[in-house]
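Just scan my protein:

. . .
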Amino acid sequence: MARRCLRWRPEKEYRYRICNVSIKTSLNFRFQGHAMELVEMDGSHTIQNFYDSLDIHFGHFFSVLVTADQTPGDYYIVASSRFLKRKVLTATAVVHYAGSLAAPSSVLPKAPTNWAWSFNQWRSFRWNLTARAARPNPQGSYHHGSINITRTIRFSSSRNFVDDRLRYALNGVSHVDTETPLKLAEYFGFGGNYFMYDTVGDEPLTASAPIKLLPCVKTIEYQTFVEIIFENSEKAVQAYHLDGYSFLVGMGTGKWSPEKRKTYNMLDVVSGHAVHVFPKSWSAFLMTFDNVGIWNLRSELWERRYLGQQLYISVQTPVRSLRDEYSLPDAALLCGAIVSPPKPPPYT
């Protein structure tokens, strides 16, 4: 955040949208002497609690309201890095009350110092169920408390050297891109010729297990209700993103076990496409896989994604119905091994 001066008028209320577009660093954001009223998180309205500072992890964004209700003067806005080993990186801006000649205090407001504080703050975020219209996905996901889980998938991160090159993996498999895009090959019925399904299992491997370099495509049956667990045995925060779906229900410390389901928030957890996993902790998703296609599940730490810590989830339906998926557009470009075969029959 570049240093600049923002002008405020006393007793006015201002909205700020704060996005963390870092490739690996969490940040803490705060206004000197002013509380922030959280009103939106990752596209969802929240219960409007007040915070002196907010931890914002990579891939997340918040909207806050700030009221200019302090003694007229200049105040700092501070953004500082979190969970870095060597040093804290800090950037500032200044808000200026109209007509004031007072300079900002030289003492910046301090950020919290441990990840347990961040963990507890996350627990305070709640979806505002009275705002806007009905909750999304009325056919399944928000009835998750009364739906039986049909499958549990646990993912754990690992790293190792393969042919003297560093690779990252999920459940022992490090993804390698194919020449032909996965969805294109699957649409034309050639998926089995260019990659194998389900090369990664539903349970983590041992830490000493070798890493395999493979195109990683995992199948999940259409319209099944699946529990996905991310486990973090490391000392740094991890984060993951799943295209096409969103729903986070719980976090906890230590190893995940079925008994931990009792701690899930089944009512008003804030839905999102990205999930962070604290050190020596776990995070859980529950969702109905009713969105047909191939969806990327990847680490939000970009060097890990580049070095293989990602996979694709293939959600298929045996019925070629326009209710579930559109046909390939006539103008779509073909590439790789799919350049000349006749198109499959369109969806009906």
Q: What stands out?
A: The two ends are 50 Å apart (CA to CA). The chain is about 5% helix and 35% strand. The chain has a mean pLDDT of 88.
